[in-house]
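Work Package 3 (structural annotation) set out to generate three-dimensional models for the target panel prioritized at the project kickoff. During this period the team completed the workflow that converts sequence records into discrete structure tokens, so that structures can be stored uniformly alongside our sequence database. As a representative example, we reproduce one entry of 269 residues exactly as it appears in the project archive.
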Amino acid sequence: MSDLPGIVITGISGRMGQMLAKTISASGKAQVVGAVERSGHDWVGQDLGAAMGGAETGVIVTDDPLEAFKNAQAVIDFTAPAATLEFAKFAAQARAVHVIGTTGFEPGQIAALEPASRHSVQIRAGNMSLGVNLLTKLAKTVAQALDADWDIEVVEAHHNRKVDAPSGTALMLGQAAADGRGISLEGNTESGRHGITGTRQPGAIGFSAIRGGDIVGEHDVIFAAAGERIVLRHIATDRVIFARGALKAALWGLDQKPGQYDMIDVLGL
């Protein structure tokens, strides 16, 4: 075993899980020391490399996160909110950096993550890419510069297997716009328009979601006023950008004190 930082990947059989395993292994900056899947999954008990269709790695996929986390310096987690809440507890016990790319949290679930962050570094973001986080900063800046005569709409597109809407990234962008405008996102949101909805609520931030095919991720923040529009756009064509960002976050977190952070902190933006 090398001296490189050890990372555990949760939800290893998913597309992001496998992408993370390949990205970390190829990076030369860290190593995969554990892989977690839900109980009953076919991969549990198999060598990770063999399960992925390659050479054996010596890492056995497990359904016991506590056992997997105990010798790791970091955990990268793109799963589901309920699972992430449990993983946060185990990461805190192991004092491991917990990088959270999971989306679809309810406000109460986000609040429930905080106790674990008193004992471990917790880095959570709706999107791990550099470009999206730059877009977030731009959205806030533009919203600060424009008055309420400008309507704000966030339009996002993803593959047909995504289960939550709006996406975590769309909500992150909407929150940035709300912060720039000096309003609360909650109570100032419009989404899911259908039928006779009446006119647009002045000052609200609208969300639209598109689902289809294998779209990795596309996000537009539209500022629209009478006679003109400003459109900020990010298009992801390969989910490896999220894996690279998550790895960067995990390595950055090794030098931080326990607490809650996001990609803006990681990237120094």
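The first strand starts at residue 6 and ends at 10.
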